[in-house]
Amino acid sequence: MESHKEKRSRPVIKIFMIIATTLIGLIAIGLLILTVSGYNIFEVAKKYGQNVPVLSTLFEEDQTEMMQTMENRLIELEAEVNDREARIEQLQNQVESKDNELNKASQEKTRLENRVDELVLMKEENKRAFSDIIKTYEEMAAKKAAPILSNMNEEEAVRILAEVKPEVLADILAKMEPTKAASFTSLVTASVENTSTTDDDEKAAE
Question: What is the DSSP string of the chain?
Answer without folding.
Answer: -HHHHHHHHHHHHHHHHHHHHHHHHHHHHHHHHHHHTT--HHHHHHHHHTTSHHHHHHHHHHHHHHHHHHHHHHHHHHHHHHHHHHHHHHHHHHHHHHHHHHHHHHHHHHHHHHHHHHHHHHHHHHHHHHHHHHHHHHHS-HHHHHHHHHHS-HHHHHHHHTTS-HHHHHHHHHTS-HHHHHHHHHHHHHHHHHHHHHHHHHHHH-
